[in-house]
Design brief:
about 0% strand; mainly alpha
């Protein structure tokens, strides 16, 4: 679906039904809870190398000169490395998150529409998607910084459009990164309050696993992503081409 057609669909779409989306999300979660758990584990494993790269210099420094870690201030060399590498670290984590979230939404479509085929968790780890994910991550990082500059108030507004980016990334491969951003804001602005409430409520439900000795949260955490699938499906419509 091209951007012009997509824009018209968003304009003509009905309002998001909070109850319907939440009920459908609960029903679908019963089918994809295991896949959500796997996505979460893959996410942790995928971002682990970025954490190791950040702390590797400190580990090497501690081995070569243990007394350096006893200082109250961070060594200048390590501080400089952190400043240079931190943006790369954040972008890398964002890219992984976008690609895996999109893969999970694609898996949600499979079980919702009873499609055949395997659960491809790495479907979007291809060159054509990774480049777009990088550009999208740069935009998201910029938007997040702008939100922080507004004393954090902007973050509340940006939660809605940013939460929609993975759905457009997953189901509209014809869109550029900038068009995904525009589409996320268009749909988000039209249904901001309902989507915000869905994100908030589903996020709270996703944390219910904490009551099971904290281990259960690994199985419920991805529930918070499912309402976005139904928001997209009910407003834009799901294509079978991706």
């Amino acid at each position: 679906m091209n951007y012009i057609h997509l824009t018209e669909r968003i304009k003509q779409s009905a309002a998001v039904d909070f109850g319907s989306v939440l009920n459908n999300s609960v029903d679908l979660f019963k089918k994809v809870w295991l896949q959500g758990f796997i996505v979460l584990i893959i996410t942790f494993v995928s971002i682990l190398p970025f954490y190791l790269l950040i702390y590797l210099p400190m580990i090497v420094m501690g081995i070569s000169d243990p007394s350096s870690l006893e200082q109250q201030e961070m060594p200048p060399a390590f501080a400089g490395f952190m400043v240079l590498f931190m943006p790369i670290f954040i972008l890398g984590v964002m890219m992984v998150g976008i690609c895996l979230n999109a893969a999970f939404l694609r898996i949600c479509r499979k079980y919702d529409l009873n499609e055949t085929g395997k659960d491809d968790y790495f479907y979007y780890f291809k060159k054509e998607y990774l480049v777009k994910a990088l550009l999208l991550s740069l935009v998201m990082l910029g938007l997040s910084l702008l939100g922080v500059l507004t004393c954090g108030l902007g973050i509340f507004y940006l939660i809605v459009p940013i939460s929609l980016f993975p759905a457009f990334f997953a189901f509209d491969k014809e869109l550029s990164a900038l068009e995904i951003v525009k589409s996320g804001f268009a749909l988000g602005n039209k249904n901001w309050l309902m989507i915000f409430l869905l994100v908030l409520v589903s996020g709270l439900i996703a944390q219910l696993g904490v009551v099971l000795c904290f281990v259960g949260v690994f199985f419920t955490a991805m529930f918070g992503k499912i309402p976005i699938y139904f928001v997209y499906k009910d407003t834009v419509g799901i294509s079978m081409d991706t």
